[in-house]
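As a warm-up, study this chain.
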Amino acid sequence: MGDGNCSNCAGTIPFELREMIARNLSKFDGNPEEWLFFKHEFTRRIHDEPSYTPIEKYCFLLKSLEGEALRSVEYTTNYEEAWNSLLMRYDNKGLLTNIHLKAILHDLPHMPEPSPEGLRHIINEIRKNRSCLNILGYPVDHWDTIFIFAVCSRLDSETHRDWRWQNIRDKKSDPTIDDLIDFLQNRERLLEDLRLHERIDVPEIICPVCGDDHLVYSCPEFLELDPRQRFREIKRVQVCSNCLGNDHETKDCSSGGCHKCGRRHHTLLHFS
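Now compare it with the structure written out below.
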């Protein structure tokens, strides 16, 4: 029966409800790094739930497995046999300890320069593997100095410098790993905001008179002309004669008129 198909499972739960519960369970494919989280969730939601029958628990377990993990229970015939088979294969404290310690102390990627993606990855890896070590029963609350050293050795020089400066400024001689995570989260948000700001398209300013990057009323070529010549130039390049803008027609302009005579033309176009 251990093939992942439990459509014929008998039990007290209607088929539709059983399918809905199964869809909301985490999947486990045999990756040792994910075993502890899977075991913790499945135990809490299914294994320790007295209202489920053994056959229903078996169905939920089969629905939660895929890949190598599902193949490992292929020839089991009941829940207890399948669950014990998984424990025997994956619940190896020594191996899991090595995996999660190595993920923090050795496998964190080096950040050559600040990036929100790099910081998010480090934050997620620290949280995940620290939590796994805690589930394994280790006193991780007393390992902050080790974790901080491991993380800081992977940070770019600018981020590492700012972290040290924050501790000096706040007079913290013994920061915690949670302090470091808070710092990295704030920095990640800052970098994301800066990146978003850089992506905002700033309209390119091109002078219609000379083609340089300035407005018409700042154009040296335009200012060298007398008012009558300026007026002809404005007509040629088809900009508003009232404000010298090029995104609307003169009849739609809301700007004030000439400062000298009050009529609807730009002051630079005024002539007697």
